[in-house]
Amino acid sequence: MVEKKVRTEPTGVRRGWIEPEHPTVSLVTQCQLLGLSRSGWYATAVAESVLNQELRGRIDQEYTAHPFYGSRRMTTVLRRAGYPVNRNRVIRLMTEMGLQAIYPKPATSTPHPDHQIYPYLLRGVIVTVPDQVWSTDITYIHLPGGLL
User: Fold this and answer.
1) Do 35 and 9 meet the contact criterion of CB atoms below 8 Å apart?
2) How many structural domains compose the chain?
3) Among residues 44, 113, 51, 59, which one has the least CA distance to residue 90?
4) Using the 8-state DSSP alphabet, how is residue 138 labeled?
5) 70-109: per-residue pLDDT in tens?
6) 54 and 31 part of one domain
7) How far apart are CA 63 and CA 135, in angstroms?
8) Is residue 77 part of a domain?
9) What is the pLDDT of residue 13?
10) Three-class DSSP category at 35
11) Own/partner pairs for 25-31, CB < 8 Å, 24+ apart?
12) How far apart are the first and last CA of the chain?
């Protein structure tokens, strides 16, 4: 059984340690010892396409001018400019670039100013005997006919 060791070196450095023609240690065992996948050893890195680089530049330009544009609006702008993109690609590129639309988020947890805040009556009370404090809970159970 081969133990998997945790390595702190980057993957590129560890890939350089593998000797594919080693006489006694197989490639599979070397990959396991280094914490690499065999598919990662055989795969070659692919350079980013020219179109993606153009899209990144255009997205950066539009985002600088309009930081409130989200992925939907950005996709529309890019399509009108003649780029063949879909929303998923724009989402991926914006995420990789660390861009997010700036707009007011919903304030769902903001309490109403007139809402009365009730005091917690059990603060500091030490429960020492049975039936000193009672509590209740409302639980909804989904049944085929509705809620119970």
Assistant:
1) no
2) 2
3) 59
4) -
5) 999 999 999 999 999 999 999 999 999 999 999 888 888 8
6) no
7) 53
8) yes
9) 83
10) coil
11) 29/2
12) 54
